[in-house]
Amino acid sequence: MDIAAAMLDVALGGAIKTRIMYSAFLSFPQLKEYLQLLTDSGLLQYSEKEREYHTTEKGKYFLKMYKDVGQTIYPQGSKRKKLAA
What we know:
The protein is mainly α. It has a domain at 2-54: Orthogonal Bundle (Arc Repressor Mutant, subunit A), CATH 1.10.10.10. It is 54% helix and 9% strand. The protein has helices at 2-10, 17-23, 28-40, 57-73, and strands spanning 44-47, 52-55. Strands 1-2 form a two-stranded antiparallel ribbon. Strand 1 (44-47) and strand 2 form a beta hairpin. The longest helix has 17 residues, at 57-73.
């Protein structure tokens, strides 16, 4: 879910494939797979006119919930504990 959230965050203002790929640290095959998954689920949409991907309202809601869960697990000011391997 971290990768999906990173991609949706980058595409909030619109982003081309290359920007999404580098921002989310993905290879091109991974990018294609995630773009397909996110567009099929209605979280991301492609604008032919602008030739960019944009986060949909559903995607923005997902991103908000993702961040809320992160705040619940790691409240501001708390120190993250490292998990033993």
